[in-house]
Amino acid sequence: MNIVVCVKQTPDTAATVTVENGKVTWGDAPLVLNPWDEFAVEQSLRIKEAHGGKVTVISLGLEGAREALKQALAMGCDEAILLQDPSFAAADTLVASAALAAALRKLDPLDLALFGRTSVDSDTGVTAAQVARRLGWPSLTLVAAVVAVDPQGRTIEVERMLEEGRQQVRAQLPAVVSVVKEIGEPRYPSFMGIRKASKAEIPTWSAADMGLQAPSPAVTWPALIAPPRVNTHCEMISADSPGEAAAQLVQRLMEEKVL
Amino acid sequence: MEFRISDEQEMVVRMVRDFGQKEVLPIIREWDRRQEMAPQILPRMAELGILGICVPERYGGQGFDYLTLGLVCEELEAVDSTLRVVMSVHMGLNSLALLQWGTETQRQAFLVPQARGEKIAGFGLTEPGVGSDVAAMASTARRQGEDYLLNGEKMWISLATKAHHILWFARTDLGSAGDPHDGISAFLLETDRPGVTRGDIHGKLGVRAGSTGWVHCQDVRLPAANRLGEEGEGFRIAMSCLDNGRYTVAAGATGLIRASLDASLRYANERRAFGRSISGFQLIQQKLAVMVQSYEAARLLYLRAGWMKNAGLRNTRETSLAKWYATDASFAAASEAIQIHGAYGYSDEYDVERYLRNSRGAMIYEGTSEIHQLMQAGYALGTRKDAQLRCELPAYDPTYWRAPGSAPAGRRTT
Amino acid sequence: MMADRIFVYIDHHLGEAVVASWEALYAASTIAASMSSGVTALVVGDGVRSLAEEAIAHGASAAVVRESPSLKDFRPELYADVVSGVLKESRPEVLVLPTTGRTRELGAMVAVDLDTGVTPDAIALEVEESAVVATRPIYAGKLLTKEVSRTRRPQIVMVRSRAFPRPTPDTARKGPVDVAAVTPGASATEVLGYRASDGGVSLTDASVIVSGGRGVSNNGRLTPPPEITDEKQQEIWRAHQGFELIRQMASVLGAAVGASRAAVDAGYIPYSNQVGQTGKVVAPDLYIACGISGAIQHLAGMRTSKTIVAINKDPEAPIFKLARFGIVGDLYEIVPALTEAFRTQLGK
To answer: What are the structural domains of chain A?
Structure first.
């Protein structure tokens, strides 16, 4: 099976993120492999282990994204490719999905493209479905379990997490899959993997390399807001009856967009 | 001079840290209270290849260097000292001795399964009546034809009841004429030989989630092929083993200082008194500053020792200095960490009391702090000189360490 | 065709609308005025005509329904084909959707079809120079960003659940409903079935946690059954009643149940529920502490929660210093009252 897993490098989730000079900054907190993508890498490796084949990890990013690619290689991916081009700067999901789809076309024939459900920075959760749409492949997002893969019959059966419960779906390959945490704990990189990864040659593909004229982004971000530090002043809710107090609290929670 | 670890070493550090945080930290308090070693610790460390981290691939290891061994020990002890104790005896004291002194046959028979984590290794030097005064050991190994007959008891042996192989030291020269230092030999003892009995010791102040015990040999028959090095070389072998064991202790104690510091920073930022965060009080800040100072100094000292091992340079003095400094400092750091935590530091609800109890042992084993002070004064005064050894710990050579050779490394396919 | 410039997609599961769809209608109505437009509801599925009427009752001025038996189960490719087709014909300025697992895929695909931007999880909308500027959280809500498709049309905006209120339905409202059958193409996906989710919410993953402390056993008015004679067992029995109230609130909120060390040590609830220094460290969006005093080692486990609500009989309880909202009262009265209020608000 020929599998591609798409990953992103993001700041560590424990980092303190603020706005400085109109830009997001995380100080000297480390950049890591997007935690959701670790689950995608894990699932890719499990499918490869079960059915044989190859896992290629790709990432749209800057030079630093090589670290995230190396982490994926150390976990066991076979090859890594960095997608980098000036036209990818200030990318919105339209641009990102176009670039990733172009890379997948270049890597075709493929059986599966895996994604984490979302990235912890921009957190849109739409890229996987957009890549699927561009390629004309089925989109299977929010996958909590891969029930069966049939490489000969060219199908995959998954269980997806919806708000209302679990949905079982079967789709033809090649397909795009995005995974959630329930898919299973990601493995640690092995020591052998770490050694291979640190020596690995990671080629860079530009837009031209992929025969892509990158679209211009549709979305812009006019302002970044750091929510004000909530003061530790506690708002006490008091009323004549428990019912009234409860109603007041719920209203305040709705107003503060807590729920 | 580069004061930076490599990207590869960074990845190893991160992996070991993740393992400790995810799999050991959540359960360690419970096992420390039980005074038992959690059963999954050794198999997991074996499975992940940690038990063979710096052994050449051709001998079943992972092919990393001695610096990486130190870095791994720092990470392990930052979670709990018992994890690092495993590395000290299995790798530092036993496996590296096989690399330094073992014949090819002995390496294949003992080092390979140890590096793969298939067998657990221990170190049998200390006796009920013999600690610092190694030369006075009472255990004997009587030559009988092609065999030796081992008799004696070793005590305070880490992994006593878990080890498959123990590097056992005993007196082979039973006459009273020669220098006792020259009458000791080293043996590779399989613990399943008839006559070997073992037991656990409980009631220790610290390292409670570990395994410490005694091993007794009653007429244990051992082929001469199991002798490590030449007859009479045992004392020198033991001292060279300690160079490597102490190195892991130094690195681990550094991790313990870091753990005390991190816990103290966290608590100081949370706790309020007199209307403000206690992190604003100068006496608290002083404690934190001292912890930072001792952490950085301890780290540089053990990294230097590791660098020297990589370069094939004799490092007895530097390793002794690192061990003495780091272990004393880790005890002080843990004590201050408890003080910062106030009454909560006195309860096992927080980790710092465990750090204190764990740190105290390291000031005693692998050379008491007093022994190290005597060593350092000896070096400084010129009364102590390191004699050339017949076998030196090989310098780290990535080509040699990472060539596959005859023994495929690791048990997992990933 | 409808002249409205704002369309709202009504998300449903097998024909039953999700509450968030009505919130999306409300959100659309807030921008409709500044765009001098009505709001048209867009319903796609099989046998979903009644959703059109419901949408109009909730504030839509008109509705478009596109049906086919092969659209009974939601499949993004087929639904996107239909929605993109409708939008290409009607050319609205804005498409508003609620944010659900389904609509994230749908909005994503329609955006690709129409070469426009898609903005999920919007918590606020404003109109600026005839463009809809959405505010959405990024970096796990540590920051907010404004986002806008300045030139591309339609703008596709998905509003986050509960970011907007639900309009009160008025069943007397009527409006034009355009119903038509569609013939979707073949699909490479087949829905095999559905089943309920496994188990409860895990503490460490939960975005809402309701926790109980020692105070849950504090109810002198409760009489244990006569067969329980031991005082300690009676106390535990009372605590179980208290935790049952907490469980009910958690169930309505889709929350996990937590506990303080005091409650665990006293035997009220298993250790796996413990939040704190020796238990789990959690960082939910909402932490509701019932009968918890707020000792430092409990706070160590939950202090980074986004919003903390404290319910305690003691007005001096330390937890009030950390809480955003507090109610001084008997949790046996407040908790059930809150559960009811949540139930009403969330339409459960």
So the answer is: 2-210 (3.40.50.620), 228-259 (no CATH)
